[in-house]
Amino acid sequence: MGLGTLVMWANIVLLAGFTFGCNSLRHLVGGRLDCFSCPHNVAKERGGYKAWRFVTWFNEQHMLWAWLSLFSVGFTDFYIRMCAAGHWTDPRFF
To answer: Which of 55, 54, 53, 48 is nearest to 30 (CA)?
Structure first.
């Protein structure tokens, strides 16, 4: 495992944060419901509210996730290109 592996894992984590904060995903997991506390709402009992709160946590910082993922994609591409061209060497941890 080398530094390039960690760079790519950070890229995946940041892209996942951006994806989980998407308004469309928030709508899919429960945003389409008008009321979670209504007695006829079974989504709350099935964990829909927890999923909606999880996605909402990411959605509240959606712009931050967008910028971080944008720069991580650019840096990951640059890092791989520099290593492939032989300008940088990828340090190995083990």
So the answer is: 48
Q: What is the pLDDT of residues 60-81, one digit of tens each?
A: 999 999 999 999 999 999 999 9
Reading the block at residue 91, the tokens are 């340090």
**What single-letter DSSP state applies at residue 75?**
H
Q: Which two tokens stand for residue 43?
A: 């989504």
> Taking the C-alpha atoms of 67, 72, 78 and 79 in order, what is their torsion angle to the nearest 10 degrees?
160
Cα separation values, 78 from 19, 20, 66, 71, 82, Å: 22, 25, 18, 10, 6
pTM, whole model, 2 decimals?
0.78
Neighbours of 58 (CB within 10 A): 19
